[in-house]
Amino acid sequence: MNYLYDTYIKTKTQRDWFERIDALADKFAERADTYDQEGRFPFENVDELKNAGYLSLTIPKEYGGEGLSLYEFVLLQERIAAGDAATALCLGWHLGCFLELAEERTWDDDMLRSLCEKVVNEHALVNRAATEPTTGSPTRGGMPQTKAVKEGDQWIINGTKTFTSMAPALDYAIVSAQVGNSGKKGNYLIPMNAEGVSIEETWDTVAMRGTRSDDLVLKDVKVAESALVEEDRGKSELPKAWLLHIPACYIGVAVAARNEAVHFAKTYKPNSLPGPIGDVPEVQRKIGEMELELFKARELLYSVAAKWVNEPQSRMEMGPSLMAVKHVATNAAAKVVDLAMRIVGARSLSLSSPLQRHYRDVRAGLHNPPMDDIVINTLAKRALE
């Protein structure tokens, strides 16, 4: 343990879970470069998390899960991301789905219980599939071009989804689609082994390579009438607090970069100096700046997460605050990684250095929802109102 984490661990449950995940995250860090270089999904990491019961972290206790809150969720996600960011981002989508479903209870209870039990008992992996080539991020409000047509007691679904994280490992996808000719959007629970479901391997980015966020292709996929698990509820929805797993992930990347740079500063001793470069005032200034950026981002993340948990009556008004966390944290994380690379110098550009991976991965956070322009615009509108 160290001060980076002790400050935010408040209960015995949090301590027990953190120690369990801390040991796994160290192993993830040893494999991270291999997954990144090969562009391979981290099956080994996910299997170890499955065996630790992590997939059930945010599932309600009444359905056999751990029932942990948003606060524990982001705390553990940050630690996993410091080991392997792609693993953390993937599991964040899965766990976030169930945290949202647990808090909003918009599904039929039997359907929700059935899916939760599959996760608890069979270690099923679930993610939402909402992004499409022509609509961009679903947070900008575009209507999906994927269509579900009713035929008898079945839905026939056709469409293509992009950025489907964990595509090679998913057991179920919650797919957004137009509901017939109603002009409304709905979400359908689709087993990945259903006939007509396929994965097109399109994931060729330089960042978060291990997430394998390939395209999900649906061609005349037939599902039961009950597969329509959610219909568009408009503006009555709670703010999506579970998306705090995104800033938690990129703070974890920044922590890993910070640790690498601090270790380098303490141990690298060029013959032009009497001691390590950590004794140089300019290097100390950069380390201090990293600490300050992390302090600001983490204090904001954990205070807002704690408010969500402790003040449920305030949740409907917390949208702008949740969005601000993402903006502040991801931009701070990018700055921390940049400072870390400046401390280490040209060595940080070597493919053998984890810093070049952290640099690529942290850039992805700027393109996860909500985007910076939406955050700033939302805050401005709140001020003007």
From TrEMBL:
UniProt entry keywords in alphabetical sequence: FAD, Flavoprotein, Oxidoreductase
Domain of life: Bacteria
Protein's UniProt name: Acyl-CoA dehydrogenase
Source organism of the structure: Fictibacillus phosphorivorans
Protein family: Belongs to the acyl-CoA dehydrogenase family.
Domain Acyl-CoA dehydrogenase/oxidase C-terminal: 247-365
Single annotated GO MF: acyl-CoA dehydrogenase activity
Pfam families: Acyl-CoA_dh_1, Acyl-CoA_dh_M, Acyl-CoA_dh_N
InterPro entries, per the entry: Acyl-CoA_Oxase/DH_mid-dom (IPR006091), Acyl-CoA_Oxase/DH_mid-dom_sf (IPR046373), AcylCo_DH-like_C (IPR036250), AcylCo_DH/oxidase_C (IPR009075), AcylCoA_DH/ox_N (IPR013786), AcylCoA_DH/ox_N_sf (IPR037069), AcylCoA_DH/oxidase_NM_dom_sf (IPR009100)
Co-factor(s): FAD
Keyword Oxidoreductase: yes
Domain Acyl-CoA oxidase/dehydrogenase middle per the UniProt entry, residue ranges: 129-221
All residue ranges annotated as the Acyl-CoA dehydrogenase/oxidase N-terminal domain in the record: 12-98
